[in-house]
Amino acid sequence: PNACMLALNDALFETKQVLTDATWPKAVTVRNARFLDWALHIEKATKENLSGAIYDSTPDQRAHLSMHADGGTKVPHGANLAIPSSNVQRTGDGRTISSDKPRNLRNAVKIKNRIYQYQGRGKNRKLIFMYTLKPSVQIKADVPFRQDFADAMRESAERHFIPRMMQAMRTR
Prior knowledge:
single chain; 172 residues; four-stranded antiparallel β-sheet; 4 helices; two-stranded antiparallel sheet; alpha+beta
């Protein structure tokens, strides 16, 4: 059990590294390199329980990692989701700047399911499209977490088992 536990735990840590360094950056635009490492948590195996897991540990599944893996429907906490247009300014890490969030927009006008903002003065004043309001949004499966997890765990566990068994036999 000790050799199995150690090999499994080694494989879990290597697999987490594969997910954060290879799988995530290939699938999405990474704006915060530490994000996935922060979001994923490892449940280590013990001698009594020879199973382990890597899971999304964010509060309320805020990272939506299962939705990235399987796809699904994102629903709002309130009435609608505000989908930003290309006119919304972003910070370096991809978040909307505070003054361009829907509730903070000055001179904002809601027309049907869109939010516009008046910009300019006098004869140069015009409406700029800022957000589309939708009751829900379909998220496509874009990160192959499950397949990469299975492949990396299988390969890593096989590679770590023999050295860990040799170590267990030497120290018994």
